[in-house]
């Protein structure tokens, strides 16, 4: 791993420790991700694809879905609450992402 990538990974790890200001924010963008990592747009995309192994959009969806799975353990939360607290902009986007990733609806996961 390149020296620059190591420094960027440290910044990324710091972001992961504060998910409310990262993937749980439905308005979080690749531009903001680049700013938070102190990278230009081109290198931000390269970092996601080459170092993290997926495009930014897939990264955000993956992190949000993992969070949603954890929240599903709390039976008192509705799927709408889980979607909102996992950083999805809407229930529909949450359900579509869940179905695409896991092959079944979130209600079947509970």
Summarize the structure.
This protein has 110 residues and is an all-alpha fold.
Notable features of this structure?
Arc Repressor Mutant, subunit A, mainly alpha, single chain, 110 residues
Compressed to H and E, one letter per element, the order equals HHHHHH
Q: Could you say what the CATH topology is called?
A: Arc Repressor Mutant, subunit A
Structural class: mainly alpha
CATH top-level class: Mainly Alpha
Q: What does this 3D model show about the protein?
A:
This protein is mainly alpha-helical and 110 residues long. The protein has a single domain, classed as Homeodomain-like (Arc Repressor Mutant, subunit A), CATH 1.10.10. Helix content is 63%, strand content 0%. Helix 2 packs across helix 3 and helix 5 crosses helix 6. The chain is elongated and about 45 Å long. It starts with a helix and ends in an 8-residue tail after the last helix. The model has no long low-confidence stretch (mean pLDDT 94).
